[in-house]
Amino acid sequence: MKRRSVSPTRIIAVAFAVIILLGAVLLSLPVASRNGKSCGFVPALFTSTSATCVTGLTLFDTWSQWSGFGQVVLILLIEVGGLGFMSAASVFVFLLRQKVGLRQRMLMAQSLNVDDMQSVVKLQKWVIIGSLSIQAVGALILFLRFLPAHGVAVAAKWGIFHSVSAFCNAGFDLFGSIAPGQSVTPFNGDWVVCLTLMVLIILGGLGFLVWEEVVRLKRFKRFSTYTKLVLVTSLGLILCGAAVILALEWNNPNTLGNMPADEKILNGLFQSVTLRTAGFASFDQNALTEGSKAVSIVLMLIGGSSGSTAGGMKTVTFVVIMLFLAARLRGRSTVTVFKRSIASTKLLDAMTLIISMVGLAMVGAVVICATSGVSLTDALFECASALGTVGLTTGVTSQLVLPTQLMIILFMYFGRVGILTLSLGFLMGSRAESRYQYAHTNIMIG
User: Fold this and answer.
1) Is 444 exposed, middle or buried (0-12, 13-18, 19+ CB in 10 A)?
2) Residue ranges of the domains in the chain?
3) Count of CB atoms within 10 A of residue 265's CB?
């Protein structure tokens, strides 16, 4: 009997689910809670999913709820979820100097969203070393900033935890010891803290392949079309997002209105960056104007870049669809960028992913409205935050009933593992090309 092989996509999806369940078991232990009592399995499952899928949505304040043991479990889940379980597993393979076989190469390539299995081991080593180095530098900067006011122990703990959380785009924080549930609001005027977190978020969200090309090739002209698109789109979204948020919130006394001009600019930029799946909040998200919430929903659904710690539909997916629309409006059938043509299959993949995410967000929002009695905008904000693995909330998370909590858990899982990846891996992994076609028919469009 022929042995049926298991696709790398399925292995990765199942591995994430196993890690989430293991994390839920550990977090449901009494020792994981600050009060010595179990928080219950469903809240633990919600938190474990949020940490592993580097989302940041929580049912309670991280510092107030979790003990030192619970916080260690969280940061390990965030690290594994952010870098990918294959990156974490590869550390042991490299340390033990074991030979990396074809199967392991396939898993690494799938995890990093690359096609080249010849150089994937070298890239994997580069990812691990680069990621840990960036997090170490970030932790050191934050440690030195927190040290004068909070002492060595707290500064070290905060530095490490928030550097990992920011780089992995997780959004978990320990600032509840001074302002429960306020995220980074106590430091929204601190340029060192905010800029450090922003740089870590951006580096984590660019993607491992992009780093490698930037360091190796150095000049923009030499970069691949994909890397060029990532860099240009990411910069454009950050600047445009900040400009729109500043315009809409400049005089809002509940967000930016009462800040000095320089702090308004800082927090406008921070908001634009954190919406790209990071989840740190420098002010009350529920106080945003309706227009800002709408912009936030769009930015959260877009997310970061492929092969990164970020979630969402991804920057290149978004820009490819924009390029496709521009081409069609001009009557062109071919989509080009940087003197290169984009394959029609990539356009179909992009449309499939966008339609799936927007459709799920709309359905989820209706369910939340029906069960929790919140506005449609706030419900959409919550669903976009979960699907984009962002972690920002307008306060809806704590109002969710059990069925909608489970729905958000599934949204966070899909958002991290990838809707398109799941559909391809589980439903179409061994699909052969059709050997026949039906006759074409004409239908009216528009």
Assistant:
1) exposed
2) 8-420
3) 15
